[in-house]
User: Fold this.
Amino acid sequence: MRWDAKNAIHIMNRKRMAQSSLAPGKGLEPPPKETAVQGIEWTQVSKRFGAVEVIPDFSLTIAPGEFVVLLGPSGCGKSTLLRMLAGLEPVSSGSIRLGGREVTHLAPGQRDVAMVFQQYALYPHMSVRENMSFGLRNVQVPSAEIERRVAHAAQMLELDALLERRPAQLSGGQRQRVAIGRAVVKEPAAFLFDEPLSNLDATLRARTRVELARLHKRLGATMVFVTHDQIEAMTLASRIAVMNRGRIEQVAAPMEIYRRPATRFVAGFVGSPAMNFLPVARLADIGGRVRVRLPGGAELSTGVPVIAVPAGTELSLGVRPEALQPAPDGELNGRAEVIERLGERTLAHVLLEDGALVVAEAHRDSEIAAGDAVKLRLDIGHLHLFDAAGKAYHAAQ
Amino acid sequence: MSTVDPGLRAALSQRRGVSALRAAAGWGHWLFVLPFLAVYIVLLVVPVFRGFWLSLNEIDLLSNESEFVGLTNYLNLWHDEIFRRAILNTLYFVVLSTPAFVALGLALALALNRPGKTGAALRAIFFGSSVLSVTIVTLIWRLVLMPDRGLLANVMRSIGLSPIAPLLSENLALPSVALVTVWWIIGLPMMLFLAALQQVPQEVYEAAAMDNAGRWRTFTAITLPAIKRTVALVTIIEVILQFQIFGQVQLMTNGGPNNASRPIVQFIYEAGFRQWALGYSAAAAQVLFGLMLIGVAVQAWVARRREAN
Assistant:
């Protein structure tokens, strides 16, 4: 069965290369072969709603077969970017190229992309089979071919038994699978996902996440995924683009984002519990590393090379909970306020002497109790410094 | 003697209390329903049966005497050419006006289903005519359709045509009344369709756009199936309403010319309150009731069959 699926995908990819698009007619031609970028390219794209500029100037290139997640808080413009790529939202300026083709002003159906919506957006009066084949029928794909693609997608997504049902007769997870199936049968150049997991419960979300990762592996298709959930981003993405107020803060592989966030915003947004930030005073450097005085008065060499950090900037120190651990010889003094025992680790919310609240992490079931006086030790190899503008400086690796 | 466990006794008395409470609550529910039920029975159920009984009698209102005549009134109606014409007129009117209400109401709703001030203003204007009374509406349209001096006559003359007088024409009288009726109360179907259209999630339309569905395909494959219940509702409401056409005809053509626009309700009114033939009039009313029932039943049957398919 596995061989079958692989073989079918191979055939699908070959077909895609041969015909390049399932949308026929109306000036739609195969992409020119000589174009350099076959993936997705946003070039200086901007978007205004009236007087409000939600995306000032956005450029990003996605390679074919990449799984890129646009990650950011609500209202950061990530969905708007996806909708502009889909053709559901006009672009104010700039250009979008897809598979080497200029698509900035093409209708949604002519872009050779498929979208999975947050609310599934299934056609309520059509059966699962009709939902999946609607798009193919609209572009006069032969019935036998429709039948084949629907059967293949249904098998892949375990929808075989549900093909004659209506959306109202399906559970949330099944509906989402139908929505994904509707995209798969189109064999598009790119899959677009607009927060597709946010309506599912936690267990189903975790399962669907894995299914999506498998789907990407099997199809090898380009996928753009929008979410505000960092776990989805971390687990699915080949690359994450962290967005804030319509701008990209950082584009990098998930662990790079986690380990070496480019800005204070990225550092605070990615990671759960969030990174702790402490105001620090810069001291005279020793040994080429930046030295700082911590809120409690303790002095510390951060491991961040001096040459990286301009002199005279106000600094704050960033430390993730797992790099801040209770220890008798710790540099920070405080009192445990709340203890969260998660099984494999314990989170201690500690109120420091200067009034700042930080989260520290102890392995397994620590004996700390709420109200205890605790000392916290910083892991010098995993400290980050941020200047007043939010730019990050990391410890040398 | 008293060997019953006190706990059990308490439980029993509690249970009795609960059932008494339930009974009281049941009566309480009835009290809420009662006002409606009383009005419904007195003003609808009783008159229906009373009407049916009247239709089997010959009634003399002056001497207040009545005589049971069986189905004679119905037989007379069967042979009454004016009544037969009234039935055909009414059916013709329903056939003219109901599809117009559905099609035009939906077309207006589709055109005005957009945010913004223009849409809101146009919605208000189209709905505005519905609040006018039948006397005002017919007065306006009589001025428009007046032979020789009306707006229509003047417009036709100004473009070099000889003016027509629709209300005086056997062929045009009823279509003219239908036109006026549609103009008058197109607002309600439009509003019902608007409400239905706004229930269709925008995402479904976006999915259809991604699926390469053109405008017509989106309308037939997405919009129409999504609002089919409202289409059925508007059709049933309009069939029931238009079967009872009376005011516009009474005020615009008075059933003429030559009974060409006389509907059943006007026939009932004239038989009952002009010729004082109450039994005969009641029989005509029963026929109208039967026709409406058949019309609505056919409607419901068609809608259900379509849904099953």
